[in-house]
Specification:
The chain is mainly beta. Helices cover 3% and strands 37% of the residues. The protein contains 1 helix and 16 strands. Strands 1-2-3-7-6-5 form a 6-stranded antiparallel beta barrel. The protein has a 6-stranded antiparallel barrel with strand order 9-10-11-16-13-12.
């Protein structure tokens, strides 16, 4: 994990278009999907991290909006291994960005709907504003979470609201387990070297360039070649083999959020298909 820019001692600020129909004749290869121009619209800046206003495919305009970031970006500090936070009151504010990276306005949380650093590194804030209110007031639409697992080789953009910077690369592959200090994450996305994300990009949406949908949330990288230590995550495969990739950065997949969001955009960890880690009392 990256060192924090402000606030938390030891904490890391880890390193977040629909295709046009093919019109070629039948004896020609189908056209490749035309990538959307990914920009900053819908991203947010936190006090120490990045994030984005997101929706699932079934979210309604009148639902309270959600902001996605990292679990290690929570204002209370890092959740302990095994700790899962649900429905905790919060009044945290977020600076909403427009397409060019300008400050469109401020939105505010009503609660931490979900947060953990177990198996994944993720936080979801519920806002006091609905999607329709945000669009009406600021002209900003939420980014949609892809409901499918991302694919190796896809072109992606990590959009940092904190730095107002876009990092472009590809999905190089996946780490069966990614271990960093006390935390272990499952099936993490590994970037190709072009995405040299830094502290403050933590929580950035990772956007598939071809669909414009969020496929992961940016969270960490190996800074100095250390082995499984803070700020130096290592990959562990199914057989326990450890691989260290100095200078390579990672994200946590977000498709598994989708089954856990019910009516009214409420996080419901008991829904069929929901595999997000649960608080001890629910196990």
């Amino acid at each position: 994990m990256k060192k924090p820019l402000v606030g938390v001692c030891f904490a890391a600020l880890l390193i977040g278009a629909t295709a046009a129909p093919a019109t070629a004749a039948s004896d020609e290869r189908p056209a490749e999907p035309r990538a959307k121009a990914v920009n900053f619209a819908g991203t947010v800046a936190l006090s120490n991290c990045s994030g984005s206003v997101v929706r699932v495919p079934d979210s309604k305009p009148g639902d309270p909006a959600l902001v996605l970031s990292n679990g290690h970006c929570l204002e209370g500090g890092f959740p302990a291994p095994g700790q899962v936070i649900v429905n905790k009151a919060s009044t945290r504010s977020f600076t909403l960005l427009n397409a060019s990276g300008g400050n469109a306005g401020t939105v505010r949380a009503s609660k931490i709907a979900y947060g953990t650093m177990t198996d994944t590194d993720m936080s979801l804030y519920q806002l006091t504003s609905t999607y329709s209110a945000i669009e009406s007031r600021y002209g900003i639409k939420a980014l949609e979470l892809n409901s499918k697992r991302p694919e190796q080789g896809r072109a992606i953009t990590v959009a940092s609201g904190y730095w107002k910077k876009l990092y472009k690369c590809n999905i190089d592959g996946f780490a069966y387990r990614l271990k960093e200090g006390s935390w272990t994450w499952k099936d993490s996305v590994r970037y190709t070297p072009a995405c040299q994300t830094i502290g403050g990009t933590s929580g950035s949406p990772v956007i598939d360039d071809a669909t414009g949908k969020v496929v992961a949330v940016n969270n960490t990288g190996n800074e100095s070649g250390g082995r499984c230590t803070d700020n130096n995550p290592c990959e562990v495969d199914e057989n326990g083999k450890v691989t260290v990739r100095e200078g390579i950065n990672y994200a946590q997949q977000t498709y598994w959020i989708v089954p856990c969001v019910g009516a009214g955009n409420k996080i419901d960890l008991s829904r069929p298909g929901c595999e997000l880690p649960k608080p001890a009392r629910m196990k």
